[in-house]
Amino acid sequence: xxxxxxxxxxxxxxxxxxxxxxxxxNTGDQIMRAFDAGWGGAVWKTLGEPxxxxxxxxxxVDMNGQKMMGLNNIELITDRPLHVNLREVAEVKKRYPKxxxxxxLMVESKREKWHEIVKATEGAGADGLELNFGCPHGxxxxxxxxxxxxxxxxxxxxxxxxxxxAKTPVIVKLTPNVTDVVYxxxxxxxxxxxxxxxxxxxxxxxxxxxxxxxxxxxxxxxxAHGGYCGPAVKPIALNMVSSVAxxxxxxxxxxxxxxxxxxxxxxxxMLLGCTTxxxxxxxxxxxxxxxxxxxxxxxxxxxxxxxxxxxxIIGRSLPSVSRWEELDLNYKIxxxxxxxxxxxxxxxxxxxxxxxxxxxxxxxxHGRTHVEIVESTCVGCNLxxxxxxxxxxxxxxxxxxxxxxxxxxxxxxxxxxxxxxxxHNAH
Amino acid sequence: MESSNPFPELKPALAIDQALSExxxxxxxxxxxxxxxxxxxxxxxxxxxxxATGNLRGSARTILQSNVLGASCARVCPTEVLCEGxxxxxxxxxxxxxxxxxxxxxxxxxxxxxxxxxxxxxxxAGRVAIIGAGxxxxxxxxxxLRLGYEPQIFDAAATxxxxxxxxxxxxxMTSEFALREVGWLVEAGVKIKSGVRIGVDxxxxxxxxxxxxxxxxxxxxxxxxxxxxxxxxxxVVEAIEFIEALKVRxxxxxxxxxxxxxxxxxxxxxxVTQARALGADEVTLVYRRSADEMxxxxxxxxxxxxxxxxxxxxxxxxxxxxxxxxxxxxxxPMLMGAPDASGRRRPEPAPGEPLTIDCxxxxxxxxxxxxxxxxxxxxxxxxxxxxxxxxxRTMQTSNPRYFAGGDCVSGGQEVVNAVAEGKRAxxxxxxxxxxxGGGVRLxxxxx
Lengths: 427, 447
Hints:
The complex is a heterodimer.
Chain A: E1 6-8, E2 11-13, E3 17-19, H1 28-37, E4 41-47, E5 58-63, E6 66-73, H2 82-95, E7 100-105, H3 111-124, E8 128-132, H4 146-149, H5 152-165, E9 170-173, H6 182-191, E10 195-198, E11 202-204, E12 226-229, H7 234-246, E13 254-257, H8 263-271, E14 274-279, H9 281-286, H10 291-305, E15 333-337, H11 347-355, E16 360-365, E17 368-373, H12 383-387, E18 394-398, H13 408-413
Parallel strand pairs in A: 3-4, 3-14, 4-7, 7-8, 8-9, 9-10, 10-13, 13-14
Antiparallel strand pairs in A: 1-2, 5-6, 6-12, 11-12, 15-18, 16-17
Helix pairs in contact in A: 1-2, 3-5, 5-6, 8-10
Chain B: H1 16-25, H2 33-37, H3 44-52, H4 56-66, H5 70-76, H6 83-86, H7 99-112, E1 127-131, H8 135-147, E2 150-155, H9 163-166, H10 175-187, E3 192-194, H11 204-210, E4 213-216, E5 236-238, H12 239-248, E6 258-262, H13 266-277, E7 282-286, H14 298-306, E8 310-312, E9 315-321, E10 328-339, E11 345-349, E12 355-358, E13 361-364, H15 372-375, E14 383-384, E15 387-388, E16 402-404, H16 407-410, H17 415-435, H18 440-446
Parallel strand pairs in B: 1-2, 1-4, 2-3, 4-16, 5-13, 6-7, 6-13, 7-8
Antiparallel strand pairs in B: 9-10, 10-11, 10-12, 14-15
C-alpha cells in the first residue's frame, strides 16, 4: 500500500487530507472526531478578536436536483473566546500528537496584535499557522481578510511581522478575488512565508428570492455578498493552484483548497502541485465520514499506478500545463459515434448544430433520431461527446493530418510555416 | 368498511421534490421519441423542462395546448406503451422518465391555481353541434372555442365525461376527478346539455338547421350479449355497467365471492382488479385464445396477476347454470385454428369435456356494441361494421357536414386517441366552415 504521509514545509501529516479553516473546525471536539474518522490534519477556524455573527449565514447553488453544487457563506471568524479555543488546541495536540493542527489567524493590521496572537497560538502547541488573507466578506470591510490579500504590499508586510516571532511554519492563505493570484503569492514569499494555501472563497451572490426580491442568504430582508466554495469553484481553484505552482518566483509548497470532495479531486490538486488538500463544503454536506473513501480511493489509485508514495504525484501534471501558443495546431481529432450504443436522443445534433460547428447530420429513424458525424467539417471540439448521455458512445479519435507539429509560437517566428497548416485551420 | 377506500390510487401524486428530481432526469431529447409516441404530440421535453425550472404555468399550458384533457390522460394513459415506452432511458438501463406522473403534477397545479385549460379565440361565425360529452367531444369543443367558433355539446347521459366518468378503473381516476375536469372545461366556455337523446329529445333535422356542422363522438355502448343459455340469471352482468355501478354507486355495488370475467381486453383487467379490491375471494379471467394473443397490455395483465387473478386461456363460455342465481359456468376448450382477418389465429371448439367453474358472478367483457340505432340515423354517413368511416386527416365523414372521432370511429382506443381525433376534427370543421364562406347558417338563423 502506498505511503500517504506528507510534509508541508515542515508540518507532518499522516495523509494529505486536511479540514479547511471553516465551520467543521470550529471546536476541538469536531476536530478530534474528524481525526478519529481519518483526517490527517485540520486548520482551526480563524482565531482573532471576538466577533458577532448574523442569522442566516449560508446559501447554495443547486443544479438539476443536485444540492450544494456551490455554497456561499457570510459567517465570520470564530465567535468563541480566544482562551477557550487555545485550551482546546492544546488538548487536541496532546491527544493527537501525530496529526497536523494548524491554526488560522486574523487580527487587525498591527504588528503587536499579530505578535501577540502568534505567540499565544504557538504556546498552545499548534504545528503551524495559516494567515487568513482571504476571507472576502465582513472582515474585509474592517481591513482584514481579503482586504490584506488583495494588496501584495500589505500581505508581504504582515507576513514579515508574523515571521519575526513565529517558530512554526507559516502558510499564507490567498484570496482568489484578484486579477492575478500570482502577485499576492509572490508577496507572501517575499514576506517570508513557508507555504501558501489557495483558494479562499470567491465573492458571490448565489441568487435572489423571486418572491421577496431579497438575495440569499436573507438576513431580515437584507443580504450581503458572501464567499463561494464547493464543487462549482474547483476549476477556478485548479487554475490558480497551477499558475502559482508554475511561477518561477513563488516556489513555495502549496495546500490546495476549492471544491475538493473526493480522492479524485484531491489527486488532481496534487498533480497540479499541492502537497496537502483542504476540504470544507463536502464535510458540511456529508460529514467527516467522507474521508474514509478519500484515503481508500487515493491509496488504491496510487497502487494501481505503481506509485509507492503520494509525494510522487505532487506536481506531476505541471509540465503539460502550457500556454495556448505552445499547443500543436496540427494535432487533429474527430468524433466517432458507436451506433450500437446510440440511444437516438439527438442531443449531440442540437448541440453541434446550434452550439458548435454544424458537423452532425440527423434524420428520424424508427421513432428515434439517427445521427452521423460529418467528418469533413468536424473540428474535434469534443462538444458532442461531452453532451452525450451514454458512456463511450461518442469517442474522439486521432486522425493523422500528415503534417508536422506546428505551434502558434513557431508560426509567429516563421510565417513560412503557413504551408504546414491544414485546411481545417487555414482560415 | 364503507369509510375506507377499496381503490387506493395505483400511482399517488408526486410531491414537489420528487417532481423536481424526476424532471431533472429528463435528457431533453431533440425531436423526442416520447412526443412522437403521444397521439396528441405533447411537447414532453418542453413541459418537463418547465417543471424543472419552476415554470408550472408554462408547463401546464404546453400540455393543455396539445391535449386539453391532459389532466385525465396523465392518469389513464397507458404511458408504458406510449410516451414512457418510447423513452430513450430504456436503452441506458435506466427507468424511463415518469412522464405521466409529471404531466399530472403540472396539470394538477393548473387546476388548483385558477388557471384556465384554454383561452377561447377571437369570435368567428360558425356553430357546431357535438354529440357526446366524452373525451372526443370535449376535445373537439375546446379546440373549436380556441379557433373562435361556437360549439354546443349534447349528451344522452345524466353526467358528462363519457367513459372518463363512468368507465375508468377507479384506482386510476375517480369519477369525481373526471367531473372536476369537465367542470374546468365548462368554466372556460364549453357548453354541455346533458340528458339529451338525439332522435328523441332533439331531432337531427333541428341540429342541421341550427348548426353549420355536426361532430359525432358517441363512443360505444354496453358489452354485447354472450349469446349463451343462462345469461338471464341473476349475477350475470356486463362490464361497462359493472364498472359504472361500482364507481358511481360504490356502496351498493354487489360483488360475488367467486367472479368469472369473460374477455381478454383491458376492460377485463379493470373488472378483475376491482372485483378483487371489492372483496371477491376468487377471480378467474377466461379468454378464448392463448396468452400471447390477449389484447390487454402486458403491464395491465401483470396488475391482474398481482391481484391474485387466475387465468384460463383457450376456453369459451358454453352455458351458465344456476337456479335463480349463477352457480357455475361451463367452458368449452378451444383450439387455435387458421389466422383470421385480424391476423390472429381463430379459436375453434376443441373436442373434449367442458370445463366447469363454480362461481356466483359472471362479468362479460367481450367487446362493446356500437350505437347502431343512432349511427344509422345519420344521413349519408357511411359505416364499416358499425364504425363511422372518416377521412383520417380531417375526421370528415362521407357527409361533408358530419365529422366524427373517438371510439365510434376507432372501435375502442385510449382517451388520448379520442382527444387527438376530436381536436383534429375541430380543425377539419373550421376548414369546412371557412371553405363555405363562414358560418352562413348561423347568420341566417340569427337573421
